[in-house]
Design goal:
single chain, alpha+beta, 10 helices, 5-stranded antiparallel beta sheet, 33% helix
Length: 333
């Protein structure tokens, strides 16, 4: 069951379309692992910034160099960079003046965040110091998306910046498989069009996305030419774990002159068309009835779709641009 707070976030006012659309329309879009990676980068950077800002404001009760207590001023110094600037003192001659130095906090995403039972830590550089803080103090600063990032992207208590692309790929593939499984449950109502007006039959659900190849079955051990032709059918689920292909998740949106609302989501699969592998949506599940087995995967899917919708309405997205600058993603991992 989708949460009330998510419904409020999903219903977005779209004033930029007010003069273009005078009637209701349904559109579909899709997210890939790069979109999820940009979402993850946003959370990673936001968590680091919140920790450093809290430290800079001298609000942490305790700080630790790994597990050794240190003064907040000592901890802050580990994240500051000395900057030299020239101050001009003559309005008629800008070359006359003097140098001055000051310290500023790093603006780049940190190398790693650490999440343990008692501590949450931050490591700015790969060979830099790891500074820990009481977990309760840090989590009180974070929103639900940032906490979800720490939960799902942590590996051996580390959320490494460099691991975001690979982890995003694995998570979206897991979401895709969960959506497929939810779609083929007997009795589940899924739709084969983006308007969610045409139901898919139970037979169509079982056949869609599968691959079939002609094969010859030999029946005579002494003569391999004796036998019969048959079809080898590979079910869709067996094909969804193909790590050589980028996973996608499709969503459909109801759009009017005043608002847009998420209405359904779909798993995807790759089909062979004249020797080419193309990606297709499987079937749309109504968002109001979406219940995945792993709630954290459902939450990250819904959160990422909202992120994607918001960024599509923006002229530019600093998180998408930063992600592309850092990782130079392609359509295929």
């Amino acid at each position: 069951m989708i949460k009330n707070f998510l419904i409020k976030r999903i219903v977005l006012m779209v004033f930029c379309f007010a003069n273009l659309l005078t009637y209701a329309e349904t559109i579909d879009n899709r997210i890939d692992a790069n979109v999820l990676g940009a979402w993850a980068l946003k959370q990673h950077q936001s968590i680091g910034n919140k920790i450093l800002e809290h430290l800079n404001d001298n609000k942490f009760k305790q700080s630790f160099l790994r597990d050794k207590p240190i003064a907040p001023a000592q901890a802050l110094a580990l994240f500051q960079t000395q900057v030299t600037a020239f101050i001009s003192t003559d309005p008629n001659n800008p070359t006359i003046g003097h140098d001055t130095t000051f310290y500023e906090l790093s603006q780049e995403p940190c190398f790693a965040l650490y999440k343990a039972k008692q501590f949450i830590g931050i490591q700015l550089l790969e060979r830099g110091a790891l500074v820990n803080f009481e977990a309760k103090e840090v989590t009180s600063l974070l929103n639900s998306s940032e906490l979800l990032y720490l939960q799902l992207y942590s590996n051996s208590e580390q959320c490494l910046l460099s691991n975001i692309p690979a982890k995003s790929f694995d998570l979206l593939m897991a979401v895709n498989i969960e959506l497929y499984k939810a779609s083929v449950i007997p009795g589940a109502l899924v739709y084969k069009n983006i308007e969610l007006s045409e139901l898919m039959s139970e037979k169509e659900k079982l056949e869609r996305g599968s691959d079939s190849y002609p094969v010859f079955v030999s029946t005579d051990p002494d003569d391999p030419t004796i036998g019969y032709d048959s079809l080898l059918i590979t079910p869709c689920l067996a094909l969804l774990n193909d790590s050589s292909q980028m996973p996608f998740v499709y969503y459909t949106v109801n759009l009017t002159s005043k608002a847009m609302k998420l209405s359904g989501v779909s798993a995807s699969f790759y089909g062979n068309i004249q020797g080419y592998k193309l990606n297709f949506y499987f079937a749309f599940l109504p968002i109001e009835k979406l219940i995945l087995e792993h709630k954290a995967l459902q939450t990250i899917l819904e959160d990422c779709i909202v992120f994607h919708m918001q960024n599509n309405l923006s002229f530019s997205s600093p998180y998408k641009e930063n992600y592309e600058r850092l990782f130079k993603p392609s359509a295929k991992q």
